[in-house]
Amino acid sequence: MAKVKAKTGLSKANKILFIIFIILLVATIVVVALSAPKVTVIESGEKEFVDEVKIDEFKPGTYGGIEFNSVDDVVKFYVECFNYNKTLTASYTENGEAKTYYKLLGDENLSVQNLLVEGKENATINKLVPGILGGLFKGAPKGLPPAANRDPVYDIRDDGPNGTKLDEKESHLTADDVLACNVVENEDGTINITIQPKAAYLSMADQDSQGRFFNVLGDISGTVNSIKILSFSQGTIDENFVVNYAGGSGTVTVNPKTKEITAADFEMDVHIDVKHANVTVIKDKSASLDIVYTNHFPASDEFLKESRNIVRK
Description:
By secondary structure, the protein is of the alpha+beta class. The protein has helices spanning 12-34, 71-85, 123-136, 221-226, 237-240, 301-308; strands at 41-43, 61-63, 66-68, 89-94, 97-102, 107-117, 120-122, 156-157, 166-167, 178-185, 191-197, 200-201, 230-232, 241-245, 249-255, 260-279, 282-297, 310-312. 22% of the residues lie in helices and 35% in strands. Strands 1, 6, 7, 10, 11, 12, 13, 14, 15, 16 and 17 form an eleven-stranded antiparallel β-sheet that branches. A three-stranded antiparallel β-sheet has the order 5-4-18. Strands 2-3 form a two-stranded antiparallel sheet.
């Protein structure tokens, strides 16, 4: 898979998010390197990166009164529904102040899994991860991904090509971006569209298959460089810090008559491999982790209230 050459800046939120992952990796390297032999260590083989289909195959047919004969038909209809739904707004209050946000708001959550150093899993660090992650990451309501905000006015990312801004109110997904998709008709007449985008290396917002479907991290080289206690015993960041997006998918439930999306679930899967890492006095270590980032629509009233004190009117 070809590397993405463009160097762009991460949005503020994604910089914070990525630093969380760096902290977890660094903590894992230190704990494993300094752990006494009595700490339980579970051997685990190196994870192979494979872009394989994880969803049911597409079966051409008529669903909800709409004819789908190809992947192009599915993607075209999905894009039409996405674009229409980003024109729909609703009234809310945030901290008592009247706001106009997207009608369909979702939550966000992430988990870090399979933290390995030198191909080994450490029981001590696994116990610490939930607490570290819970203390640093606080999900916020967002529009359908890719999305930078819950407010259409600010649904713009600042990490486009050469520092350009990206308007996320329209989808630029194409059939060439899709590894697999399917359509299912529900008993109530709605249809479910599931899409699995093709894998991408170091995914960039709106510039590749993953970036046109998920809220990706973007270029992380500058952020890695800014972590002073982390360096590499040989090679470059591009060679030693490999970020692969693969296996994730999204499902939207659509009213085919109106093209309104009534529910959706997205799961973005990311695998990070680090080689030849130096952390202070600890030299030349390899490490890896998996990131699972999810969005569920619609967000519950409880999530809106607890995350940003937002109330639906």
